[in-house]
Amino acid sequence: MPDIFGVIADATRRDILQVLLERHQQDAEISVSEIVGQLEISQPTVSKHLKVLREAELVSVREEGQHRFYSLDPEPLEMIEDFVIPFLSADFNTEVTVEYLSEEGERIPGPRTADPFGEAGDEAEVLPEEAAAAAERIGRAAARAEHRVKELVARFRLRE
Predict the structure, then answer these.
(1) Has this prediction a pTM greater than 0.90?
(2) 86 partner at 20 to 30 Å CA-CA among 114, 115, 134, 147?
């Protein structure tokens, strides 16, 4: 597989990826002629860059007669994400503090676990299995949201 960083280093390929991303978000494919029309570059140039993107497994192609329809495969870009995230989050404080509040908004102690002898133990969250699964899904969604915010902040910083 080609070096993914080298593949996306080219501005035209990044433009093509952006067009493919827009279609990917619509769960749709796009033809070469549509890419040519959107980017206003020649068909041979688009085809050349699509070949590089295909070899990097960033796009897949479906042939229908003489027409080719392309779709984005964002999975190889996760390698770039994995490399870049530590740099983007270097200045972020991601410590989370949990407080339990009453209906009136007053701070209250967190839930306590009971030991086998019925006495209160250390503070810890005790959740039924279904609630624990829901909490895990919420945690993952929060992590994705945090990642997205960091990504947007980093993009904003690059534009300054």
Answers:
(1) no
(2) 134
Does residue 12 contact residue 49 with C-beta atoms inside 8 Å?
A: yes
Domains, in order of start, for the chain: 4-74 (1.10.10.10), 89-159 (no CATH)
Exposure string of 101-137, with b = 16+ CB inside 10 Å and e = fewer, is eeeeeeeeeeeeeeeeeeeeeeeeeeeeeeeeeeeee
The pLDDT-based confidence of 121 (bands split at 50, 70, 90) is: very low
CB of 4 closer than 8 Å to CB of 44: no
Contacts of 36 (CB under 8 A, 6+ apart): 42, 43, 46
Choose among 74, 18, 12: nearest CA to 45.
12
User: Is the Cα torsion angle 20, 88, 149, 158 positive or negative in sign?
Assistant: negative
